[in-house]
Amino acid sequence: MRSFVVTDEVRSYAVEHGSFRPDEVMRRLRSETAALGDAAGMQIGEDQGQLLTMLTGLVGARRAVEVGTFTGYSSLCIARGLADGGSLLCCDVSEEWTSIARRAWSEAGLADRIELRLAPALDTLRALPSEADLDLVFIDADKPGYSAYWAELVPRVRPGGLLLVDNVLWSGRIVDPDVSDTNTDALRLFNDLVAADDRVEVVVLTAFDGLTLARRR
């Protein structure tokens, strides 16, 4: 089998051997988020953050959108990878959690690259221009909303652009026939939708909690 349990030690080793190591602002943000308790589980890992930075750079992203910002770690990672003059639009509904994000963006000197809109994400996405000029999208929000976010974003991503979607394997519950709940069922429907969408080429990574990488044709 080409798999093993990824311990904290293995993850730390991988992060330390990557090019996009977390800086002091990121480390403080992770500590502050950890203090929130169970909610901290919504924050992506440092290894996934490094991947976001690299993918953002690989597509030369100048226009990016994030759906689900939480305390801002993933947005910091994306903003670090943007091309000169690039911008990231963040969609969220929590003033409490995104106030932590705003502070981190400012401390990192990246606040001028990031715009936050506090409103239902669908309202924000539907108000975007209809032309396909987005380079990168990251969806990591309420699972029942994934299919609707996808429907709004795919037509707005340029050919060759990327759509990244988190939590698509849901800690393995996605393949457990005995599990049926709102989030799991929504993710199953979403994954089937993406697999059948001929507008994109798709790879589902079994790393992290399952990450969909979709390249716009």
Principal-axes shape call: globular
Unreliable sequence segments: none
Secondary-structure element series: HHHEHEHEHEHEHEE
Binned strand content:
15-25%
If you compute it from the alpha carbons, what radius of gyration comes out, rounded to the nearest whole angstrom? Answer: 17 Å
Strand order of the largest sheet: 3-2-1-4-5-7-6
Roughly how much helix do the residues carry, as a percent range? 25-40%
Q: In the CATH hierarchy, what is the architecture at level 2?
A: 3-Layer(aba) Sandwich
* Quantity of strands, as a count: 7
Provide the domain count. Answer: 1
Question: Based on helices, strands and strand pairing, what is the structural class?
Answer: alpha/beta
Head-to-tail CA distance between termini: 33 Å
- CATH level-1 class: Alpha Beta
What is the fourth-level CATH superfamily? Vaccinia Virus protein VP39
Give me the number of helical elements. Answer: 8
Classify the fold: give the CATH topology: Rossmann fold
